[in-house]
Design goal:
The chain has 13 helices and 9 strands. The protein is an alpha/beta fold and 296 residues long. The strands form 2 sheets. Strands 4-3-2-5-6-9-7 form a 7-stranded mixed beta sheet, sandwiched between helices. It has a two-stranded antiparallel sheet with strand order 1-8. The protein is elongated. The termini are far apart.
């Protein structure tokens, strides 16, 4: 086993063989086998001694072992029962001095509503490609104590999350992430640092939480507007939002009230403009939201 407190390629394969682990596409398992990469993730995430970190999908523990010496506590959420059971023993063996900083939660991250111990201040993870966007958005929603996120995801997903209005890849994930946070690409990661090696490169994306846009609409109302706008992204907003608003005329009225040309397409608007449209529509419908609802 490693004497550096981190895992390399041979140690990862040794652990996988010991526990009978065969990486599965169902759970999007690609284990990081490069110690420099996990150290880089922790460094870019800016984790410090006051941070309570939540990690989703720790796998065999590569990133976990890089987080534990730096953070105050690390809570990991792992869906694979074999991996969830094995991780504490691995940490105890490789880094016994910080083993007491680890809490393992065996659960599907998309179903987690609460976490044991102190509220998390950061989410740092190598996320399975197939659930990366839902995990990021659900943790931002459910855990308002999370101030920042640094995740490694498929490069295309990272670029989509960080996209800005007017870009061809700007869409629903871009707008919804921007509701909660300032989003930016934080670097590229070669496919060669994974086992098994995926068919695509990965990217690091950082999210720093900020206040959501000022609006009298609820988050749900704004997100419903966003979903409708991009469901038919080639159409003008007057046409794309017709079903959402009740009619093309109602959509046009909400757009005009928000100061937006009805001939505009959704990919040209930022989150503040979507919030303004939803607010105008809610006001016209006579259902303004409470301040508490806005801040959900």
């Amino acid at each position: 086993m490693s004497t550096s407190g981190l895992l390399g390629a041979s140690q990862i394969r040794e652990l996988a063989a010991r526990f009978g682990i065969r990486p599965t596409k169902t759970w999007g398992q690609n284990f990081v086998i490069d110690a420099n990469t996990v150290q880089r993730i922790v460094r870019v995430a800016g984790i410090g001694a006051d941070d309570v970190v939540v990690e989703v999908g720790p796998g065999l523990g590569s990133l976990t072992l890089a987080l534990l010496p730096v953070a105050r506590h690390v809570t990991v959420v792992e869906v694979d029962p074999v991996l969830a059971e094995a991780l504490p023993g691995t940490v105890e063996s490789v880094a016994p001095a910080v083993a007491d900083r680890l809490t393992v939660v065996h659960a599907d991250a998309l179903r987690v509503e609460s976490l044991p111990g102190e509220a998390p201040t950061a989410l740092v993870a190598n996320l399975p490609y197939n659930v990366s966007v839902p995990v990021v958005l659900s943790f931002l929603e459910r855990f308002p104590s999370i101030e920042r996120i640094l995740v490694m995801v498929q490069l295309e997903v990272a670029e989509r999350l960080a996209a800005t209005p007017g870009s061809k890849i700007y869409g629903v994930p871009s707008v919804k992430a921007a509701w909660y946070a300032d989003v930016a690409l934080a670097g590229n990661v070669s496919r060669s640092v994974f086992w098994p090696m995926p068919n695509v490169d990965s990217g690091l994306v950082s999210l720093t939480r900020r206040e959501p846009p000022e609006t009298s609409a609820t988050r749900e109302q704004v997100f419903a507007c966003v979903d409708a706008a991009f469901a038919q992204r080639r159409k003008t907003l007057r046409a794309a939002l017709a079903s959402w608003a009740g009619s093309a005329q109602a959509a046009e009225a909400a757009l005009v009230a928000a100061g937006i040309d009805p001939r505009t397409r959704g990919e040209q608007l930022d989150v503040h403009q979507f919030a303004a449209i939803a607010s105008s529509h809610a006001a016209a419908a006579g259902s303004p939201a409470s301040v508490a609802e806005q801040r959900e």
